[in-house]
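Entry 12.
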Amino acid sequence: MKYLIIGNSAAAVGAVEAIRRNDKGNPITIISDEPHHVYSRPLISYLLAGHTKKDKMYYRDENFYKENNVETVFNKKVTGVDTKKKQVIIEGQGARGKGQLIDYDRLLIATGGTPFVPPIKGKDRKNVYTFTKWSDAEEIIKISKKVQKAVVIGAGMIGLKAIEGLNAIGIDVTVVELAPEVLSRALDRDASRIVQRKMEEAGVEVITNNEVVEITGKGNIATGVVLRDKKKIKCDLVIVAIGVIPNIGFIKDSGIKINRGVVVDERMETNVKGVYAAGDVAEALNMLTNEKMPIPIWPLAYRQGGIAGDNMSGGSLVYKGGFPMNSIEFPGVPTISIGIIEPRGEGYESIIKNDAANGNYKRIIIKNERLVGAILVGDDVDRAGILTGLIKEQTPVTAFKDKLLDRNFGFVHTSREHRREKLEKPI
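Predicted 3D structure (tokens):
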């Protein structure tokens, strides 16, 4: 049995560890287009800011591959998958000039997301970067001492992580966002306004309801941007942080079913027997909406990878679904959103506590007596764990609904039946 994994992040780690629980000996190969040992992508903003060192970036210790008998193929991009011959094609000169071929018996696609870069005029100039990989942070660090002003395109989670790193090393930042608010996909309007105010207090210029239509330059080096309303902004650095899309371009002719991402069943298997997908690239079940969709979250990627790896090696684990969660603490204001934050349709109820003056906000979203979503800003984020548990377990909350907004809401406020169930649940 030959196990082959394309990608080298959380889903890959979960898969390797699950395979080795079932199969101690058969070979595992990981292919990655990066040169690094498996690392924590959420830490790249801390690397840019100087808050962590390179040796602290790794997600598993340096012996991970050796201990799990994993062969690595680094700095190689996969260009195609032949599911009939059970071969993966990677860049480089192979037989008949078609690239190098690697055989597999079980294949896991764990290629994550790739940055979405719209067709902005001048996007190929130097000093224009995305911000999803270690190499992005390293390239920005190399030129950072020469940078005084940066423009970040996009005020979502990736944009704010980039701004966090730039702000920490003293670079003046303007962020341009197409939506009316920052973090528009993770927060509602009232929560976004609190975050935007804090960003502006930290010295970040925030421009919403606008977009960059051109990156201007001197020669091939970016020196500014032009907005849709003709406004011009001078800068030494541009970061495109609009978002990511599943990295699926290399499988479009493989026969593997794709929609927004790679479509998988409850075993994380695709429509092609023996081929699995997990992590940001996979279109798996959202347990709150009962629809399949990519949910780019690190813990879900690891869990999906574990389920895929288990089934690849003869197990029978089932993925019961997940839901979106986002967390960021910048600038000095912790923010967490969980589950459904933009209710559509009938039957939803929202209860809100808005203390915008002090930077605190809490919104709880309920449907059919169950908690389905929450937005927490400021002091209330330390309640996120218990709220996440209530969403995951789909616990009826009617009996203690009036306590959900309390600053000290906790396990003691839940129903007697819920407490008994949690206490009596086998470890």
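Annotation: DSSP finds nine helices and 26 strands in the chain. The chain has a mean pLDDT of 93.
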